[in-house]
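To close the section, here is one more complete example, presented without commentary so you can practise reading it yourself. The ligand is adenosine-5'-diphosphate.
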Amino acid sequence: MNSLGKYKISISNIKRNKLRNSMVILAFILAVILGSIILGPVYGIQNYYVKTINEAGFNVIAIFSGNIASSNSYTLPTNFINISTMKYLENIGGVYAISPVFLAGYFSFGNSSAYFVGSNSQLKLIGSLELYKGSFIKDNSTNSNLINVDLGYNVWNKFLKGVDINQTVSLSLIVQFGFSYKYLNVKLKVIGLLSERPKIPSINLDPNNVVIANIFDIFYLFNITNYNSIPLDAIFVSASDFNSIDNLENKIVQVLSDLGYKKNVDYMIVSQKDAIYYVNNIFNQFYRFLNIIWAAILAISSLSILIVMFITVRERYREIGTLRAIGARKIDVVTMILLEGLVLCIIGIILGMFLGYIIINLLKMYYTFMQTVDNSTIIYTFSIIVPEIIASAIIFSLYPAYIASKVPPSVALRYE
Amino acid sequence: MNEVIIQLENVYKAYKIGNDTILALKNINLLIKKAEFISIVGPSGSGKTTLLNLIGALDKPTKGKILFNGIDLTQQNDKEISKYRAENVGFIFQTFNLIPSLNVWENVKLPTYFSSKKGFKEDKIMELLELVGLKERAFHKPLQLSGGEQQRVAIARALVNDPQILIADEPTGNLDSKNAEIILDIFKNLNLSGKTIILATHNLKLVEYSNRIIHLYDGVIKDEFVR
Ligand SMILES: Nc1ncnc2c1ncn2[C@@H]1O[C@H](COP(=O)(O)OP(=O)(O)O)[C@@H](O)[C@H]1O
Ligand SMILES: [Mg+2]
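Output:
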């Protein structure tokens, strides 16, 4: 314990040149603040995207009809996915749930609109839908012109404000036929109201702007008896667990290929895992770019400590010689100077974290994208940048410390 | 009392400055016995500081051996040398060399951090400050003290690990005669209590206190006499 007393010198030295040491502390404060406001929002947005994709459904693999990704060179599918395709997919091992998605048309509410979606009871699980009230649609058709529906959050909360379950509403459905539209009056019985859920980034369809009905009820409404003649817009499949998504996706592609469907022409397949991978991949590229900026910030704080520790060592040559003369080992000199640098760095880091936290919270008031930077993201950001700052401070104090320890005491004592 | 504590054998010290080599010490042979009070005198540049630095192991000779209680200091590593400096010698400099950011008490304590000697008690710091007459200045900073007072703190610091040898390089060079006398009195008493004292000076008045005088001239021992 007694040997720790020597570090009292390091601490007392810090008080000696307040202006110079304040500059170093300031450099570290800025490093933490800049690091956290540059990296924090990016971590925040990435987390938000990954979280939203995760919450968008339960291990979902989405099979879309046609190729919506390459709309520039749109090639019409020759083979449409339909209800019978779904029957083939149902029997693949590892399929936990499966739903058809049929966009029957839309209801217009002033500037906004809601899709009329035909599906089945499993959509609730696949799409991680939560009921605010009432029940979800069933699998069998009621064969009636009064169609049971669940309303998306915006529909019951904004467009049809005040609507409740068990009420009947009459709406005009807009159905597209090629380039023309047809209006159809439909009577809907509200059986459930859905809770609000986040919008999936980069997908235009707002999951809160939907009216969900049983697909066969919609076919009944349209007088369709040959179900297999109707192209589905999508089929959603749930894998039983996240890690088996890729495996199941491969099996689905195989089955579809056996059925004569051409990938990226007749259908497009995307999984939640693909989406997360895609998002992470884009962010990783972005990090590589941001790391250059981060390195420049670190270089500035490192340089400031390097220069100041050099000046400190120079200025205290004689003192270092004295310490060596009264028995300090080289390693004592090194650790004493390192500690001095480290204390400056840590003071800067603590103040920087404090100010960084305040600044991020102020920025949140002016920039919506900053909202994604929650407390745990701030802590995560600090946990990434702080060790790097400390490591660089140690590395850059090490050289002046080493130089100091190399000075022969006899020379240091002669030094004026 | 005739035990040899320090022995120099054929010691040379050369300094290189660019292409020039300065021979600061030439073939020094010296035996120092326990409890001797030695004065090393000689004009400026004669090699006094160089010689003291070698005895205090602040530097290594270019050639020759320096033995402390029979152990060759020139062969020791940094850890062993540091232990020797911390525990066996107390160094006193012309320029005092106190640590300005620490107070008097802390300055005196400093060498104890580098010593592994057992039995140190903090009370000793106050006892030493009392010995040098600065007990009431314990919590002042060095720069609040006069030169003479600072040198007395330096003496207390040199004594804290109870070394066998005290090395003082022109300790009164920056002091007036009254203060110089106080310092010399302290040395005299320390010597009487059994410490070996090696003092470099060009002030011949100080020589009176010592029992052996070595005259250094241009890096060689020109003559010496014992009183
Ligand atoms: N570190 C050094 N580098 C070069 N020359 C030195 C060094 N230390 C001492 N000298 C030279 O060695 C000689 C003896 O110096 P020094 O021991 O300081 O003498 P003194 O203490 O008697 O004045 C002088 O010529 C001095 O210039
Ligand atoms: Mg000298």
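Once you have examined the tokens, check your reading against these statements. Chain B touches chain A through 33 residues (CB under 8 Å). The longest strand of chain B covers residues 4-17.
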